[in-house]
Each structure stands twice: as C-alpha cells, then as structure tokens.
Please model this.
Amino acid sequence: MTAQLISTTSTPINLDLKKLPQHVAIIMDGNGRWAKQRGLPRIEGHRKGANTLKEILRTCKNWGIKTLTAYAFSTENWGRPLTEVGFLMGLFERLLRQELQEMKEEGVRIRFIGDLSPLPSSLQQEIHYSMTETQHNQTINFNVAINYGSRGEIVKACRHIAEKVAQGELAPESINEDLISQYLYTSSSPDPDLLIRTSGEMRLSNFLLWQMAYTEIYVTDTFWPDFDVQQFHKAVATYQKRDRRFGKIV
Model:
C-alpha cells in the first residue's frame, strides 16, 4: 500500500473507528540525521520536519483523533549549537504567524506545555496570542511541548502541592494521583494512548513520564521528516492490535 492510497481526509477502511487512539504523543526525532544523509544543514531537516508535523496534525483531525502532543523542544535542547537553537526559535515564531489562520479555520485548539519563560519575548507573544485565538476550537487539541522536561514538570507540581499543604489549604492525605495530574501541564488532556518515536531510539527522553504509565509505545527507524501518512497509518494499525489490559487479566 502506497502513501498515495491512504487518504488524509477520511479514516482508512482497514482501521477500526472504535479503537482509534484518542491521544497520540510523538517524539519527533531524526531531523538532523535526515539532513546529514542528504548533505544538507541540520536546519533543513527541521524545516522538513515542520511540514511533516502539519501533515500528521491534519491527518489526526480528519481521522477523528482528538489530541496530538508533539515534543518540539526539550529543556536539554538548549545545549545544541546557538545557531540551531536560534533557528528553531525563529521557526516556531514564523510557523505560528503563518499557520494560525488555517488552524482557526480547521478547528485546531493549540496549547503549549513547558516552561515558556526562557523563550524569546516575541515568541512568547505569538504563543499566547495563538492560544487565545484558538481556545474555543474543539475539533482537535494540539499540544506543543516546548522547553519541556517531564521531571521538571513533576517537581513543579509537587512544589505547588507542598505550598497548598503549608498554607493549610490542602490536607496531605488528600494527595492522590488525580490531584497530582491536575497540577501538570497536561491537566486538560487525557493521558496518551499511543506514543510514536521516530529514528529508532528506544528511550522516552524525559517526555510525559507521569502521563505515559500505560501508553502503548511504537518505535520506527524512519527519521521524522520521512514519517508520512503511510507510516502514521502503520503505527495506528499496530496500536489497534495491542491488548491493552492496564495491569489486569482479561
């Protein structure tokens, strides 16, 4: 089956509509290696990867998948060359300006998760504007993890809860998993059903550690810029074959 035979506008007939993942998370890995293989600067891999993300977001929307969370920039990514980091910050900003109107028209609600405070002020403005402009959209939730680190997220949640306890607003015995989840960046989203990681790396890379306790994991050797609709279809089809028992015996 070729990519051209898999429609981005309707769910493929060989997928079970009742078993579609409602939340897909993606670690978009391999942009730099994709570019290196072609003798191109790493930034060209990021450009192509941005187009891939747009295609997968639209596919999720049209297939009825309600939430997509993309790992765009981790807290560790600040250690990359300054030119690459600067390009990525500029790319995020340009994409928001260019794509916002189309996202509004297609019913995309965009949210950014992570510590946004270190980002360039102009990017922060575009982020807040895009979230405000799309906050009432309901077709698909699009979470972009930027300057995100899951351990830091959990520490931040614990600090907030500890402050509530210290101020007498919260009893220690009332702390449970649901409460902790409410203090995470992803409090408005269900936990991911499916994690897709490209480029063959077998690790979570500090991404949604709490939220992915029972997430099905799919790893492909394909670099992110080459992860097309056909590849996405294969990941979802594999997910639908999994027996999700959540620790129980069925």
Summary: The domain at 23-152+192-240 is CATH 3.40.1180.10 (Undecaprenyl pyrophosphate synthetase). The chain has one domain: 23-152+192-240. The radius of gyration is 19 Å.
